[in-house]
Amino acid sequence: MTEIMQPRILTGFMELLPEDQILFNRMLDTIRKVYEQFGFLPLDTPTIELSEVLLAKAGGETEKQIYRFNKGDHDLSLRFDLTVPLARYTAQHESELVFPFKRYQMSKVFRGERPQKGRFREFYQCDIDIIGLDELSLFYDAEMPAVIYRVFKELDFGPFTIRLNNRKILNGFFRSIGLEDKITEVLRTIDKLDKIGEENVRKELAELGVDEEKTERILSLIHLDGTADEILSALDGFGIEDETFEAGVAEMKEVVKNMRLLGMPDEAFKLDLTIARGLDYYTGTVYETTLNDYPKLGSICSGGRYDNLTGYYTKQRMPGIGISIGLTRLFSQLKEEGLIKPERRTLVEALVVPLGKDQMEAALKTAAALRAADIKTDVFYQEKGMKQKMKYASRLGIPYVVLIGEEEANNGTVSVKNMDEGQQVTVPLNEAIEMIAK
Amino acid sequence: MTEIMQPRILTGFMELLPEDQILFNRMLDTIRKVYEQFGFLPLDTPTIELSEVLLAKAGGETEKQIYRFNKGDHDLSLRFDLTVPLARYTAQHESELVFPFKRYQMSKVFRGERPQKGRFREFYQCDIDIIGLDELSLFYDAEMPAVIYRVFKELDFGPFTIRLNNRKILNGFFRSIGLEDKITEVLRTIDKLDKIGEENVRKELAELGVDEEKTERILSLIHLDGTADEILSALDGFGIEDETFEAGVAEMKEVVKNMRLLGMPDEAFKLDLTIARGLDYYTGTVYETTLNDYPKLGSICSGGRYDNLTGYYTKQRMPGIGISIGLTRLFSQLKEEGLIKPERRTLVEALVVPLGKDQMEAALKTAAALRAADIKTDVFYQEKGMKQKMKYASRLGIPYVVLIGEEEANNGTVSVKNMDEGQQVTVPLNEAIEMIAK
Do A5 and B347 touch (CB under 8 A)? Predict the structure, then answer.
């Protein structure tokens, strides 16, 4: 006798029951549909990369989280995001690609973090990026939020806000008040405003050696509030004379104008000068997205523009812009908030149920006809009582049961039971197909 | 200056250009559609499993190929197929699942093999399985080939044959001629008939200690040829008195009958007594599928029935039946044979091209309208000459270019150029949308 091994998986991995998997896949399908609608092309890079190549840039925290191992003579790693593989891919295939290169990838990435609530070690990222050669039009900075808008409109989780900022505004501002050399630390502190509150931000800024006057100036900038137009005109009157700052404001104006032309309503976006995005490589427009009724979920779709994606792999400069949805985390959060509920446990539209053995022949033919009409069809083959047959249908949430008894088999009819409403009609097969297809 | 790392991936990994990725994804979509049509539900198990759980059964060659590594306190492995994770999942979630449990999974699996032509270290498997509690109706043995039939009909790679056998026929036969204790070795030899030829099979059988009379008997069995009905009646007259043999023949008759009832034409399947399938766990019907015009591709979809999927994880017996398509290998083979050719390099249906800067506003509005009508739309934002704009469209194979010049912008019209046929018409935007949507 074989010994029994307790079946289990490691914590920090999401594994769903079919009814939830159906909903998860529907989200993946919706996102993919919108990405394709905006002209992005699919990519599917390997899960396993050569460590030396994948980690050319990485360091610190990231490197510690990598699943890295040797196999044969090779030092290998699982990808920890989709951006580094994109950089590697674009540099590797530069001569074969058409630029600007618009790609989407929706794949799992891997991070060996300590497990904690809401953190996953294996999770889906749904990314789009546009990569240019040497240059990339500013219009793409408006296309990104237009994609985000459409995605979350179609996913239909309630009202959301796309928050925009421009790193040039922040960089120029800090330079103009003489904090150029502390930009990274100051931005990192500002980024925590929502989490730790203003008092603690003041404290941390003081610790960084920022004097009170400058701190006031910083806070008055990042507290600018109002409509997009109000903030833009406040920035014009903010009295900063710095080229980078002015370029950032001009870009932001252009982006706002183009978002409107792309059909985005004003309530869908907000200029938010507190957004810095942790990553060092953002250089222009940056994005975060929040669900209005669930601010505690944090940003559910983030990204921005970067000056050069591929510096580690080629001398050709490739500026880009991209956004990412961490779908595994989002799904798990939405489920916890009760925003995702399985309507049906199944995709199956019809269950064919022969009443007895003698109707099996008619049942098989009926199933073939339903499937030929593109109706997702299952057949109950087991010889069980009627109660168990109906229980199978209702546990799986199948909307139509197609019953075949002696009379039906003889007459070429079927009895269709609508499982939601309870009523049952006996009709010719072709009528049943029409009824269910609707 | 950063040092340049040569961008590359490990051999044995398939990475496609977008135009091929589009075709690959289309195959995945088709397979998924058919799997869902037959009532299979989606599953997505983790890529990384606990080694102790995943490898409860494995040994020998399989174990050597595993990507296995430690992270923190955990001994982890990448899945090497989708069957073991299914067994683990089904045992783990037994109380939450509805049986018979019909699931599909289309995911990457990982095998650290020595790279050789046509072998991949990371590849997609597209699997369906049906798992029962204690028992599983024989009707599913006919449903499997019905799914295979529909899949390859829709994939449209030309004529194909689904080859069926039943392990009970082989097992019973070998028992009846007193070779019960050598079944595995003899079957392994027979399995190589196509590869090594009859002479070598005879030699290997002799080495196994099978005498000439028995060898003749074996060869006359596996050389049985003809229509399904001819082979079935030849088996009846083969003079074997063995319960298992007779049960196998009876099952095969039933499966043939039911395949026909499910709408499969006789030319789509063939009884083939040489098929044993290497894996030890098949116990009833087994399948292989070959493309008639490309026999050298070998079996492109295989599977069968097994008595107990989950023996290592639960005492509950769970018989099952399943098939698997190794899509990465199939795609690469079909491409090599010239059976897959990108018709278009893109999914994009329309490219909006403003003639100058002043038409950018109209271009953005036009793009928004096209996308709202579900037309996959890209915009050419770069300020380049007309030649370069059209080159982008033609290199990507975009079928319609929507040109907007001064006149069009003023009149609310667009000029639609059909890139395949060359002609160009100027029409109101809504007419253009209708034209492209068709």
Answer: no
Please give, rounded to a whole number of angstroms, the shortest distance from the CA of A413 to a CA of chain B: 17
- Does B133 lie at the interface with A, CB-CB under 8 angstroms? no
What is the model's pTM?
A: 0.95
Any B CB within 8 A of A311 CB: yes
Whole-Å CA distances, B287 to A290, B110, B273, B321: 51, 23, 11, 10
> In which order are the strands placed within the sheet that holds A377-379?
A377-379, A350-354, A400-404, A413-418, A424-428
pLDDT of residue A113: 77
Q: In what order do the strands lie in the sheet with B282-291?
A: B41-42, B101-110, B122-131, B320-326, B302-306, B282-291, B160-166, B269-271
DSSP A72-95: TTEEEEE-S-SHHHHHHHHHHTGG
Question: What would the pLDDT profile of B258-279 be if each residue is shown by its tens digit?
Answer: 999 999 999 999 999 988 876 6
Contacts of A13 in chain B (CB under 8 A): 46, 48
The answer to whether A395 and A380 are in contact (CB under 8 A) is no
Which of A6, A38, A44 lies closest to B21 in CB terms? A44
Whether the CB-CB separation of B131 and B91 falls below 8 Å is answered with no
Confidence of residue B187 (pLDDT cuts 50, 70, 90): confident
Of the candidates A72, A367, A396, which has its C-beta nearest B112's C-beta? A72
Q: Look at A47 and B110 and tell me if their CB atoms are within 8 Å.
A: yes
CB of B255 closer than 8 Å to CB of B164: yes
Phi-psi label, residue A436: left if phi above 0, alpha if psi -120 to 50, beta otherwise: alpha
CB B332 within 8 A of CB B341: no
Give the pLDDT confidence of A390-425 residue by residue, as tens digits.
999 999 999 999 999 999 999 999 999 999 999 999
Residue with tokens 């904690």: A116
Name the amino acid, one letter, at A183.
Answer: I
